[in-house]
Each structure stands twice: as structure tokens, then as C-alpha cells.
User: What shape does this take?
Amino acid sequence: MSQNNSKTLILASPRGFCAGVERAIKIVEGALEKFGAPIYVRHEIVHNKRVVDDLAQKGAVFVKELDEVPEGGHVIFSAHGVARAVHKRADDLNMMAIDATCPLVTKVHLEAGKHVKRGRHILLIGHAGHPEVIGTMGQVEAGEMTLIETPEDALAFTPPEDTDLALATQTTLSADETAEIITVLQHRFPEISGPKGEDICYATTNRQNAVKALASDIDYLLVIGAQNSSNSKRLVETGLKAGVEAAKLVADASKLDFAALDKASIIGLSAGASAPEILVDEVVEALQARYELTITHQNFIQENMHFKLPSILSKQEVAS
Assistant: This one.
């Protein structure tokens, strides 16, 4: 153990897997059980290498595009959602496609379709290049949706003439950041149609609020998650904005920065919605091996959300 080795670790709650991620993983496992390997998965089913590697060992084959899937093969679309053109391509190639899109993302897709039918141009708040954004923008024709990434984008946007506007958001954003952009848009366009509820998902909001509640009690925040996980990055940003002195996103225990942790007294530990609890356990073990650790548990909120599996993988046929 290091000198000055007494630390307190507060485990944030809720943390880790959300209902949409759990559903997506069960879909891959259920498809493997029902149809046998290989089951092809377009892109990472969720943004976590440990999860992807575990599923690959069970027989899942991860591909970038459908051209890599044999004609007639079984393919699963990731939890982030895909464009309508991807569904059509799967049909054209006679594939059996199983959609693991998170139901909360599907809700955004359905709302987008309704707005277009009503003649509205959609402003999507999100990050360019994120799979969820690509999938959501792919629900409508080119020119029917504009991506807004920053308050500056919201100020610079010029609407089409004689067209009503509607608002949608990526589900994994920072609630505070989104609120700022929405305020700009609502000030500029008071008649804009917003989502009936927040598009930002319950799990993203809960994890961010749990970190905010921890902020005044800790001097270092650890967030377990992948570098390409939007909701995990937002947790780090939320902690820093809430006043935590230092915050770091780590993929797993091997990425811990002990030089920085040595200086901390009270550490908060959270995990993004696609990070499995085993990664939390491994980080705790690594900290216990180095420090005299007192562990406490935050009980901010209990989550009881569950999403049904697709009918093709019903509970009668595949144990969940």
C-alpha cells in the first residue's frame, strides 16, 4: 500500500447497465440460443468492449455493414438504432433482422416521423457522428432534419421559409447542456414543437443527477465507460460542472491513474449505462489492493425499468 493510503470510496447509485442495454444484450444471447451461432451484429451492440468481447466469445460476429453478412443470415441492429435505409437493405438481402434499438430511441424515431407528416422541419440536438444521431437522422429524408450541436448552432440556424419547426434530442446527452440549447431555440422560435417529455432517457438523467448529488462529498470522480460512450463522457462533464476537483473516464481497472488517486481522500465511483458491474468490481478490487479503503453506498434512486424482448425472442421461448 502507498503512504497516505486511507481513502473513502462512495459507489454511486444508480450506475451501470440501463434497461435498454440489458435488453440489447439479452437479444443477442437469446438469438444465439434460439438460432445458434453465428449471429451477426451490425456495429457494437452497446459501447463497451468487455460486453462486445463476451458476446463474441459466445458466437456473435460484429460487422460494420450488412455487406459482411451472408445473404439470409441473422443480423441484429444495435441499441443505438439504425436508419430506415439499413432496414430496407436487410430486407433486400433476405436477412432475418432483429432490432435491438432501445425503446426510448425508438420513441424519438416515431416522433420524428410524426413531425415530418405534419410538415415540420426537425432540429435534432446531438453529436455528429454518434450512431444514435445517424440512425435518428436516417428516419427522415435529407433536408427534413438539421443537427444542432451547440448553443452557437442554435443561434445560427436559419429555418426554411413557411415551415413549422419541431425539436428532438439524442437520448444520452447532458441534461444541462441540452437545456441551454433548448432555451435558445425556444427564445428564437416560440412556436417550436418540443417533445412531450424529455427525450433524454431516464437512465442518463438518473446517473447524472446521482453524480451531482455526490459532487460536494468527493474530491475525485471515477467514471467507468468507453471513450465512445456518450452518456459516460457526460457523467465526467456533469461531475466537473457540479464542482468535483478532478474527474476521469476509465475503460477498466487497468486504466486507473494512481498518481492522481493518491492525492484524493474521498473518491466517487460511477459507471456509464453500457458498463457492466464486473468492471466496477474490478476497479474496487484494484483500489482495495492499493489503499485502506472504506466503502459506502449512495442510494440516490432505485430503478425498476424493464423492456420486453422482441416477440421473436419471447419469454416463452428464451429465458430472460
Q: What stands out?
A: Confidence is low (pLDDT under 50) at residues 316-320. The first strand starts at residue 6 and ends at 11. Residues 19-35 form the longest helix (17 residues).
